[in-house]
């Protein structure tokens, strides 16, 4: 369990920003928001936005802005529900907007950029964001979509510039959380924490607060501070006891503390409600770590089904496919998927996945340069360090391997129920 979920998190941040724009444009102000419902409020907000847009389009079917707002709301609906069918609806609405206003339609290009990010087509997202920027150069959401795309394409410096522009225009939750991720990738953990704290302070809705609490919890967990992680997750759950992300955080903490039965029960409930690829994958790994290999295999099968549904909806995520194949014990599939993803983008997460797949295929000399590239950013990522350590061990570079494995366990001794014990065993053997 590690930061590979960041891709999904970035889509969430973009969705929050776009939903805020859409809801403001369409709100009639006659629906008070009940306090303390957290993610349920976000669901009702996007549903109201969709209903208001549909109602307006019945009266004004050629309204390009409303078609664009509807498309962006469908992107958010896909995120909330986990149903990729909304991607097709979003695409149709946004294309309708462009048909009615082919030129100067920054709102439609902004929505198409967010949709492309959600589908993991980051090159297309970058291009759509640039089209939106040409029309709306002073709109913060444009730079959020652009920063997400550039980050995942491995253009770290350009992404940082886009985040800075977003902060200059609108220093709110979407900008601060993106700044935190930029800091984290560079190993600047204290700066990342400060940015997330500013996001929490700037939160003006339950949805923003939940998101900020979750990100603070994730940062703490990934740096080995279980108490702080638990505090952040539990504070969020006081707002919404059913928030899936925060329940996932609570389950991770339970597993890390050795409360495996509680963690497994929590994940079982979570995937029953929200069968997202991330949660199915984490549950499968947890089951395997608990020795329940048949149950783990069933979850991996469900994960493969979800990946096929996403692919049918136009989403391509060979990074997730590679990681899942590696965890499932299929190195050939892991390597093929990682190579496809690397051909599209050179992000540190992809470099790490490719390094690990090459290692599993017995090609450690080829793997090491990719592991080195993942580590070169300075990101304090226990999984990166573990993979690099195991590759170095296979190459007979004992001292360097021990340093890398020791680093993984110092960063986060609970980074994986399966891999953390393997790191300890390998380190003991080297010593």
TrEMBL record:
InterPro entries: TPR-like_helical_dom_sf, TPR_rpt. Residues 1-25 form the signal peptide. SMART domains: TPR. It comes from the Bacteria. It comes from Lentzea pudingi. PANTHER family: CELL DIVISION CYCLE 16,23,27, CELL DIVISION CYCLE PROTEIN 27 HOMOLOG. Keywords: Signal, TPR repeat. TPR repeats lie at residues 210-243, 382-415. PROSITE patterns: TPR. This is Tetratricopeptide repeat protein. Pfam families: TPR_16. Coiled coil: none annotated.
């Amino acid at each position: 369990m590690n930061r590979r979920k960041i891709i999904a998190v970035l889509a969430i941040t973009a969705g929050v920003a776009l939903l805020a724009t859409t809801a403001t444009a369409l709100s009639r102000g006659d629906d008070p928001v009940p306090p303390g419902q957290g993610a349920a409020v976000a669901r009702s907000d996007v549903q109201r936005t969709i209903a208001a847009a549909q109602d307006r389009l019945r009266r004004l079917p050629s309204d390009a802005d409303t078609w664009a707002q509807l498309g962006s709301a469908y992107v958010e609906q896909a995120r909330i529900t986990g149903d990729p069918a909304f991607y097709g609806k979003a695409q149709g609405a946004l294309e309708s907007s462009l048909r009615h206003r082919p030129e100067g339609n920054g709102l439609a290009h902004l929505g198409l950029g967010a949709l492309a990010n959600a589908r993991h087509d980051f090159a297309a997202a970058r291009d759509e964001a640039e089209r939106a920027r040409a029309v709306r150069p002073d709109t913060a959401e444009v730079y959020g979509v652009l920063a997400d795309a550039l980050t995942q394409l491995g253009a770290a410096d350009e992404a940082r510039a886009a985040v800075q522009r977003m902060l200059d225009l609108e220093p709110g939750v979407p900008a601060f959380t993106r700044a935190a991720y930029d800091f984290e990738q560079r190993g600047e953990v204290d700066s990342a924490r400060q940015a997330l704290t500013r996001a929490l302070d700037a939160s003006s809705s339950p949805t923003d607060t939940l998101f900020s609490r979750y990100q603070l919890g994730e940062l703490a967990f990934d740096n080995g501070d279980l108490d702080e992680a638990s505090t952040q997750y539990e504070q969020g759950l006081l707002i919404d006891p059913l928030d899936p992300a925060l329940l996932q955080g609570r389950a991770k903490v339970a597993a890390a503390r050795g409360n495996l039965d509680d963690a497994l029960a929590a994940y079982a409930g979570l995937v029953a409600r929200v069968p997202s690829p991330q949660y199915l994958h984490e549950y499968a790994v947890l089951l395997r770590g608990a020795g329940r290999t048949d149950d783990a295999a069933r979850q991996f099968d469900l994960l493969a089904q979800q990946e096929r549904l996403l692919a049918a909806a136009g989403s391509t995520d060979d990074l997730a496919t590679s990681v899942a194949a590696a965890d499932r014990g299929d190195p050939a599939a892991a390597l093929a998927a990682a190579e496809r993803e690397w051909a599209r983008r050179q992000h540190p997460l992809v470099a790490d996945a490719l390094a690990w797949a090459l290692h599993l295929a017995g090609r450690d000399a080829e793997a090491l340069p990719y592991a080195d590239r993942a580590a070169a950013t300075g990101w304090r990522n226990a999984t990166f360090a573990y993979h690099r350590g195991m590759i170095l061990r296979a190459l007979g570079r004992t001292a360097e391997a021990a340093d890398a494995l020791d680093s993984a366990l110092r960063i986060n001794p609970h980074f994986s129920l399966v891999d953390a014990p393997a790191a300890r065993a390998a380190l003991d053997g080297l010593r």
